Amino acid sequence: MLLNVSYNNGEITKKIDREIGKPFTLKERWAMKGIGSPKLFITETSIEIRNLLILDNNLDTCNIEMRPKGIIVRFRSLLETFALIVPYYKLRIYKGDFAMYTIYRDNYFIKVRSDTKAVQKFFKKMLDYKIDNAPTSLGDL
Questions:
Q1: How many CB atoms are located within 10 Å of the residue 121 CB?
Q2: Which of 34, 64, 107, 113 measures 20 to 30 Å from 120, CA to CA?
Q3: Separation between Cα atoms, residue 53 and residue 55, nearest integer Å
Q4: Can you state the percent helix, strand and coil of the chain, rounding each to 5?
């Protein structure tokens, strides 16, 4: 789900909270050693996101926030903030070339450059959290 989150709208906040849960508490954030990614440089996106990003000439960047049941990928374009809401059950991450990660949700995708250790460490933390909190699959029974 791709949303404009520039303005404080209670309806959009409730929609996000239903989809991926409320934000972690401060104690949980401290225990996890942070829930946000460093600045990620976007190299390629799906057509819907690309149409938003080409509206301005700024460098295309995003960041990721972890939530209990999913992630929020936020990026800016023309003084507006947009968010791609991705529940863990729809999240697919592919490690491509040397320093690339691609985040998929249905027909949306964002490819980011991961040329620092901090970015790679964040993706590992995010994937470990997804695995640890996934429901039991039939194969595990």
A1: 14
A2: 107
A3: 5
A4: 35, 35, 35
Q: Taking the CA of residue 100 as centre, how many other CA atoms within 13 Å lie in the half-sphere pointing to its CB?
A: 12
Can you say whether residue 123 is alpha, beta or left, with left for phi > 0 and alpha for psi between -120 and 50 degrees?
A: alpha
**Spatial contact of 92 and 71, defined as CB atoms under 8 Å apart:** no
Q: Is the pLDDT of residue 72 over 70?
A: yes
Burial class, 12, CB count within 10 angstroms (exposed 0-12 / middle 13-18 / buried 19+): middle
Residue 11 has pLDDT above 90, yes or no: yes
Which amino acid, residue 13?
T
Provide the domain limits for residue 67.
2-127
86 domain-assigned:
yes
pLDDT at 138 > cutoff 70? no
Domain count, the chain: 1
Residue 102: CATH number of its domain = 2.30.29
> Residue 73 corresponds to which tokens in the numbers above?
């990928």
Helix (H) or strand (E) run with residue 35 in it: none
Per-chain mean pLDDT for the chain: 90
